[in-house]
Amino acid sequence: KGGLEAGRSFINSVKLASHLANVGDSKTLVIHPASTTHQQLGAEEQTSSGVKPDMVRVSVGIEHIDDIKADLDQALAVFGKK
Fold first, then answer.
1. Which of 11, 17, 21, 71 could anchor a disulfide with 36, C-beta 3.0 to 4.6 Å?
2. What is the total count of domains within the chain?
3. Within 10 Å of residue 31's Cβ, how many Cβ atoms?
4. pTM of structure
């Protein structure tokens, strides 16, 4: 929900997870495909590829699961207040 800015806002709210397009890492990563990996595509092409403007991809790393969950929870809480 919320479109392109909502996706970006969530990404900017995480603290533990890194905001990188390199999903082949051992640490937790979050990316916003519409503005990174699929930015060269137009809106229709993104949608037909399954990329929604507010979609966020999380690649879970080797950090303790409680730390990952806490980071995502706090980002959602911050995002929910905006």
1. 21
2. 1
3. 23
4. 0.73
